[in-house]
């Protein structure tokens, strides 16, 4: 009789890969946890209950075949597990590292509801694909039969890269245009290395380059070419820029030197990790070393900032958030990691102003209390006038989220339709904008969201674009266009 390898959640405790000691990991930008050893990965995968309705898959935006590749992992059939995982995701090892599994697959695991602790899905996913890279199972991107049609993708983040990969597989010439000097978008320049080491991203983008996708880096649409000019170069265009406009604080003193945007701070840190010259970091403006740091916000970007400041050698790091811990939008696991590393959270607090002479020296804060639920169902914070206090600060980092940039102006394309929030308006069925042959996907359509959702959108839009392009010209017959 074959040995039972699944349904081991009662006798086998949940166990994540061990994290390095907080004091040690706060000294570098390496990922804080190593990969499973093979027996541990198989043991943890074997805890899956193989339930009839896999809520883990239902709550995954990609609808990954999670129970199936967990079973294959438990049985030691790792290559098959990788191939199944890879069949629905272009970046499984990246999702395994940065997805908020506690809110998605693991948070909806059936055995989590029975108080046995969820299956450690993200850690197993990371293990499967890292092993595949080491063993040479990750195959090159092989283009489909050449169709004689060209696609331009604006944005080299997860949505754009995913669409580019699928479209190249369909046989299109694919050109990716991106404002940064390296592909990856926020995967490269927004997310710190302690969550996602950059080699993990670079090996993915190198695979796309080797598959014939052409990258145009340091390319700004509107400066180097208008949207209309890109439409002339290509048979179809995808807008996948993401959202980069920082939400503002309206408070006295917000313009003081030393009050900076989260993305500026994180990009500077990640560039230093690549060995780039970063004047704003080198002159101390975006370096936390020796400073009292205050980060404003409670999302994952705020967690990235506080943990980066710790690694840069800050004298102290405080995070001000206007709601309590239970109502913060960021990952609870990331919050716990930050606390272990020395970050102090000041819950139910918000800035009222910033003081200083030639630069910021103090955050004027006020205590908050939670009132009635707002339209989203969350209790709305309101100021408690009797609970004002000051927080010394040498550097204040605003991490309040992101909105869409004004693409019609930025792209010199006033005809491009957008919503009142500035996101690009698309047809829900075709994912096309109001401009013929111009599609859009990812955060620039939905607003700031998750990497895994952007990957899903990239996969979906590639299919819609393929359907549309097949109608435009037979295989091998392309319209005349300006060379890319």
Task: Walk me through what this model shows.
It is built from 19 helices and 15 strands. By secondary structure, the protein is α/β, with parallel strands linked by helices. The chain has a five-stranded parallel sheet with strand order 3-2-1-4-15, sandwiched between helices. Strands 6-13-7-8-9 form a five-stranded parallel sheet. The longest helix has 22 residues, at 451-472. The N and C termini lie far apart (62 Å).
Describe this protein with a few key phrases.
15 strands, 19 helices, 34% helix, five-stranded parallel beta sheet, alpha/beta, 484 residues
Number of strands: 15
Quaternary structure classification: single chain
Poorly predicted segments: none
Gross morphology is globular
Strand content: 15-25%
Task: Indicate the radius of gyration in whole angstroms.
Answer: 23 Å
Identify the strand order in the major beta sheet: 3-2-1-4-15
Distance between the termini: 62 Å
Please report the number of helical segments. Answer: 19
Mean pLDDT: 94
What does the largest sheet look like? Answer: 5 strands, parallel
User: What is the helix content?
Assistant: 25-40%
Helix/strand/pairing class, anyone?
Answer: alpha/beta
Please give the structural blueprint.
Layout: H1 22-25, H2 38-45, H3 55-58, H4 66-74, H5 78-86, H6 92-98, H7 110-113, H8 121-135, E1 150-154, H9 158-169, E2 173-177, H10 186-189, H11 198-210, E3 214-216, H12 227-233, E4 236-239, E5 245-246, E6 259-261, H13 262-274, H14 279-282, E7 292-296, H15 300-311, E8 316-320, H16 332-340, E9 344-346, E10 349-355, E11 362-373, E12 379-392, E13 395-398, E14 402-403, H17 407-410, E15 438-440, H18 443-446, H19 451-472
Parallel strand pairs: 1-2, 1-4, 2-3, 4-15, 6-13, 7-8, 7-13, 8-9
Antiparallel strand pairs: 5-14, 10-11, 11-12
Helix pairs in contact: 2-4, 2-8, 4-5, 5-8, 6-8, 9-19, 13-15, 15-16
